[in-house]
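Exam revision sheet. Question 4 asks you to relate a sequence to its structure. Input first:
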Amino acid sequence: MHLERGPWTLEWLGRFVETSHSRGITEIGFSEHPHRFRECRAMYPPRDAVSGWVDEQCTEGLDDYFRLIEAARHAGLAVKLGLEGDFLPGYERELERAVRGYPWDYVIGSVHWLPPSTAGGVWWGFDDLSRTDEWARHDVLEAYRQYFRLIAGAAETGFFDFIGHPDVIKVAGYRPAADLYDLYDRAAASFAHAGVCAEINTAGWRKPVGEAYPAPPFLAACRLAGVPTLINSDAHTPEDVGRDFERAETIARAAGYTEVATFAARRRTMVPLP
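Answer key, structure tokens:
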């Protein structure tokens, strides 16, 4: 869950908690993006290479985030502290400082940016739905191949507990005509080798693609490779907390899963699916 669309207050956080309770969810965590935090600015390319977007978002301090979560816990709210880290090749050292230097309950590894094809170019934030016209300037299959190489690279860093929305490259609904099973199999093998989980993320049902992440064949490849899973709603507003969990449980069982992962202090525990 992400707090970025509301004020940095206990009241706003509490609305997420209230929705989770109303939907019978007993464990929740907040997973802010590093681009929110001034201390994490060095994890991203310079301003000209990301169109200034990161600098516009980078307005908070990590200490404020920690204090807010601590205040929630003191108020009796059972919440966990997470980070959804962006993997950008070339910025691994800065990423590692953020991952290793703070007391997270879990760290998500995600890819939201594809690197420029030429030196001095601009990184492509492909999941920005206000800029879907950018797809017309890219080969769709090559974008998928590049994305899948990056999520495998993210897993292999050892920085992350699970890979978030593992095929979010499809978010805008653009899909290659080619078969993707080889990409799925290679990514699943990388996840298994690295010991990370693959998240089932229900937000895809709320996006133009109209499908959870990962696609059922990709999830099946993860299960075959022995990759654990967990279910998250990726909620940016309180109303989305726990949305479509029943649908997610259905596709998890269809892929052969009978349990999901939970985390505390970077340690993974498996629990049975409901």
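Marking note for examiners. The first strand starts at residue 28 and ends at 32.
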